[in-house]
Amino acid sequence: MTSTSPLLTPPVAVIVGASSGIGAALAHRLAADGYRLALLARREDALQAVAERVAAAGNAGRPHVFPHDVTDYDAIPGLFQRILAAMGRVDVVVYAAGVLHPVAADEYDFAKDRPMLETNLLGAVAWLGQAAAYFQTQGEGHIVGISSVAGDRGRVKNPAYQASKAGLTNYLESLRNRLSRHGVHVLTVKPGFVDTPMLQAAGGGAFWVISPEQAAADIAKAIRRRKQVIYTPARWRWLMLTIQHIPSFLFRKVSV
Fold first, then answer.
1. Which residue among 3, 43, 97, 213 sits deepest, i.e. has the most Cβ atoms within 10 Å of its Cβ?
2. What CATH topology corresponds to 12-251?
């Protein structure tokens, strides 16, 4: 459990993008850890199914469900207040929403690029900015953003997706630097290949593919330990450190 909650009051986690993948797995993990949950996603049927499975596990009651399209930015302030009214408090906000459209090496299609930027970056800024304002006033709380190893360096494949994740990584670092003096914890999560519908739609992962449940366990542990940045699985940290130090004239020749 988060240290922000009294012993007799279960903490509350809001998971944006909870209908599948890491978000859904994290709902199960945090419920098992004693959290009450508010789950958000665009697909209401899938979201309700996740809530039913969490409730059936019998850990923390049925999650509250809030259907929501993260690109409806104007709706977020009012929705956040609805969540507060329903839950009574918020201790953790997780932004796990994301889209990845396959893009060919010689393809430049703004119709594909735009949704990735709108969902992966702008939706995150809208939601996590709302969380930041609330937690700064409270003087405590946890913000969790699911970024990606794809944001660590500009590679040949899918420039817009990588830009969205690089932007999210830097945004989270800025929030961390701004909010640390107010007692607010900000966690950046950088998964590698996770066996999710998004990865399958993109053609699958090449190596080190982990389950959403493993990623969720790593994230829950990082929240408890107030980590700043984690890679999941952890060995990605060392691979990305190596990749970041490859000279540009060599890196541009590598088709990754």
1. 97
2. Rossmann fold (3.40.50)
